[in-house]
Amino acid sequence: MQQEACLCLKACRTGKRARRGDASADLARRERRWDASSSLRRSREAADEVGGATGVCSRAMTNGARGVAVVTGGGSGIGREVALALARRGHRLALLGRRPEPLAETLARLPVSPDAASPASAAFACDVRDPEALGRAAAEIEARFGAPEVLVPAAGVAVLRSLEELSPEDFQAVLATNLTGVFLTLRAFLPGMRRQQRGWIFPLLSVAARRGFPGWSAYCASKWGLAGLLAALYPGATDTPIWEAAPGSWNRAAMVPPEEVARAVVWALDADPRTLVEEIHLGPAGGAL
């Protein structure tokens, strides 16, 4: 089984021609500043709702002041490593998660900012399955920092059981976090990002969005569904706490370090503005585990 992260890297560049068949074409023609990602053609109704924002990104970010980066699931695993990498890049962080303690641990590891006048990074106790809590968090973050320049929905869970042993409640719980939680996160933060007409969204998918694995039915279903909503970066089996609950023996030393996933995010952010990064695939050097 490989756990992959998938980044939505569809760039919206100034002056780019809107792609045919996209709901965002009219917006791009009017404002000349947005280009809908090809993933929106797979976003079905979501494309009509967000009009190109599923892969929203600005022109290449400058080396000046960075906007705030919002990371859900920022208390561990890939979410924590991405948050730390974005902080090193100069972003203030707004970390979301159900448990305050791991979020506080991430904040404690952040580099000290030389800009004392800017608001400090902060953590917000928030369950991505709760649309009202997400709405309150989004309003507070925008009031404190402004709309996100980077949004990383990294919160995820897995319940590993055979299909006949998997309860309907556990199946729904995995989909509620991994799929519906991403939708609700986008729904909470996209309006502000659209108003400022800049930003990147990096949702985490998985190789489980493309293959099925015994015992991973709910997890695979959640990632297949997410791949129908948007597209992004796919790392293979990544050494995160998700494997602590996985039955069997796993060679975690052979897995992709989560720091490498974070490095891929930063690479995409720093890519030349003439470059359109659509998907990134990472995997263990030895192949699938």
Instruction: Please indicate the count of domains.
Output: 1
Question: Which percent range describes the beta-strand content?
Answer: 5-15%
Give the neighbour order of strands across the main sheet. Answer: 3-2-1-4-5
Element pattern in H and E = HHEHEHEHEHEHEHE
Blueprint (SSEs and pairs):
Elements: H1 25-31, H2 45-50, E1 69-72, H3 77-88, E2 93-97, H4 100-108, E3 122-125, H5 131-145, E4 150-153, H6 168-196, E5 200-201, H7 217-229, E6 233-235, H8 258-270, E7 280-282
Parallel strand pairs: 1-2, 1-4, 2-3, 4-5, 6-7
Describe, in plain words, how this protein is organized in 3D.
There is one protein chain. This protein is α/β, with parallel strands linked by helices and 289 residues long. The protein has a single domain, classed as Rossmann fold. The chain is 36% helix and 9% strand. The protein has 8 helices and 7 strands; from the N terminus they run H-H-E-H-E-H-E-H-E-H-E-H-E-H-E. Helix 6 links the parallel strand 4 and strand 5.
